[in-house]
Structures are given as C-alpha cells and as structure tokens.
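Retro notes, structure queue

What went well: the backlog is down to a handful. What didn't: a couple of records were mislabeled last round, so from now on we paste the full input next to the output in the thread. Example, using DNA-protecting protein DprA from Actinomadura rudentiformis:
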Amino acid sequence: MGRLIAVAGPAGALETIRSGEIPPGLEAGRVGDRLERWRIRLSGADPEADLAVSERMNIRLVCPGDPEWPTTLDNLGDERPYALWLRGPEDLRYGCLRSVAIVGSRAASPYGLRVAAELGAELAERGWTVISGGAMGIDAAAHRGALATDGPTLAVFANGVDVSYPAGNDGLFAEMARRALLVSEMPPGTEPNRLRFLIRNRVIAALSRGTVVVEAARRSGALGTAAWARKLGRVLMAVPGPVHSGSSVGCHRLLRDDPPATLVTRSEEVIEAVGPIGALAPDPGVPVLPRDRLDATTRAVLEALPARGAKGTAQIAVKAGLDLATVNGKLGLLAAAGFVERAPAGWRLTTKARA
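Corresponding output:
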C-alpha cells in the first residue's frame, strides 16, 4: 500500500492520492511534472492555521455526505469539489433547493445593474436563493437586491471566504457573512487568480436550478458559467439589452444559439422557466404538488410534524417510522414545495400547509 499524501489537484482543490499511483485524468508522461509541482505547493499548506482562522471567523468545512452538502454538485462528476468552506448562517443545501444564479459583466451598465438588482430582490422575496460570484457589477447588484428584501443569497468565491475580493465589495461581504452565505472550495487565506475564477463558474452553475445572464460582453466570464449550465442540463436564461450595447453582445449570442437560451425580462418568467427543473419546484403562489398527491413516504414525514410548534429531525423520524437519511431528504423536498420550513427548534409546518 502506498503512502497517503495530500496534493493540490488539477482544479485547485485538495486531492488525496497514493504515492506511485496515477491520478485520474492525467497522462502517465505528465505525472512526474505534476507531482513535483503539487509537492512544492503542499509544502506551503498549513492545516492548523486554516483551522485557527476558521474557528476565529466562524468558517465551517462541508464534504460530500455531510447534511449540508448539496447533492446537485454530484452532477459535476470528476470535477466535483472535494469540499467547500462556508461562512455565514444560512444552510447551503437547503438554500440551493430553490435557487437561481444571476451573473453578468463586471463593467455593467446602469440598465444591467437595475435589472440585476430587481431580479435579485423579486426572486429572493419569493423565497428563491440568489446565487452569484460576488464580483463588481451584475453579481454585486444581484446580491444587494436579495439582501434589500431580507431574502436568501450566497456568493461563490474564487478565493478564501475570509478574503474580501474585490475590496470594493468589503461591506457587502461583511453583511453576507452576518446574514447570508459565502462559499469557496479554496481554503482560508487563498488569493484569487484567473484560473480560480474559471473553475469557480462550474460551482455556481451546479448549485443553482438555472442561470440568468443579465449582461455579458463578447468575452465575458459569465459566458463560462452559461456554458457550464448548458453542460449540466440546467435552465439557461438571458436578458436582452440594447442592440448597440457591447455589454449585451454575449446575451444576444446566447439567445441566437442552437438551442437558444430562454429570453427573460422579469422574475415571473425566471420562475416559470426554472420551476420544472426541481421535482417539487413551486409556483410563486401555489405548491406544484398538493398534499393529496404526495407519495406515501413524503406524506408520512409531513404528518409527523405537529400542527403547532416545531420538532427536530430525529423526533420526526421516530414518529414517521423512517430512518434519518430518508427524513432529511423528504424534508428538503417538502421545504422546496412550501409545506415546511426551518425553525430554531427544528422543522415546522408553513401557514400554507396548515390551511
């Protein structure tokens, strides 16, 4: 058995391999060079320092199989992150059950900023998590729109969640760390670079049910997120702009592609497009699946919740006669359908479910 060593994988994440083995996706002739570069980078790793920073800044690490890990990331296959660092009070998996990515140009026009802020606010107000990359321009406008309505939003960083980049969004990130969520596959202290922005885009696309490109120039990084959304089978949407605007060239190209992106101009159109992607994705007003059409297992979980007050997951599992893994999955689906919601003491029925 070879010695276990931790090295930085091709996508920048930590990868555990056995010395002497060839990592997946690498040609034998390139292994020596790659291993040497990874060993050099490994010498700079300081797990104890990472843990100390995490404890001080309330940063947590989630891995595949953890309750907070979004299973939508599994669609990335071999390119799935090995772990994610999180900063903020929101639950990542729960937030991604009803989520839309809003991305676009850093050098956004007043038109694009207004559209992004309005979409972010209206989607968040309807209970949809707004996902973006925390960049200047469209990203920041979408996050701020969601925060303005006290709605859910999360930013996926190309750097550590303790690093404010760009510095101009420092106030935004501080507010998100207080009441939303910052996400990264890079450990604390990691500075951004061009490659990390490119690989970050796949996480934005995978976490969300669909991606809206508000503004994108011909070579915009937002088009990379759009490409990942298409590759993963997510709904891809684009907002049209003025025909003479260089900031909308990328959006117009997406709308002309075969197949074309879905043209959207308001939040209702986004929800209409994204809704069918989720098994229990809700309409803004009425759940798609009413109580009498739930399967027997899901109905048993729903009926295990009290008419008033809240219960913990373990209590619900005992009353429903089901294992914790099954109950966790069904609660997520029921939450996405608008039947249940999180409470300080566990889970409770929504007003809609009690009606």
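Agreed that this is the format going forward. Reviewer comment attached to the example: The chain has a mean pLDDT of 83.
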